[in-house]
Amino acid sequence: PKESPMKTDQLTELELQCRTRLVAKFDERPIWSRQALEMNVPPQDVKRFKAVLPTVAYFFRNGPWRHTWVK
After folding, report:
1. Contacts of 62 (CB under 8 A, 6+ apart)
2. pTM, entire model
3. Which pLDDT value is given to residue 1?
């Protein structure tokens, strides 16, 4: 999607910085598990996943890509 499913105007400055790093990760690879993301971003970003991840990708709950975040 071209636009984020969630509004980013309510994110804090630190959350926006985290979002920028996550967007770069999703540009490298369009599908990530939460565990893979946790291993590939700074530890302080992991605490912000709940607020930031839904602004970058959507989550599959079932099917072959279940439990993954997709760009």
Report:
1. none
2. 0.79
3. 46
Higher pLDDT, 39 or 2: 39
Structure tokens at 42: 């700074």
Separation of alpha carbons 47 and 15, rounded Å:
10
DSSP H helices in the chain: 13-28, 34-40, 43-46, 49-56
pLDDT higher at 62 or 7:
62
With both helix axes pointing from N to C terminus, report the angle between 13-28 and 49-56 in degrees, rounded to the nearest 10: 50
d(Cα 54, Cα 32) in Å, to the nearest integer? 13
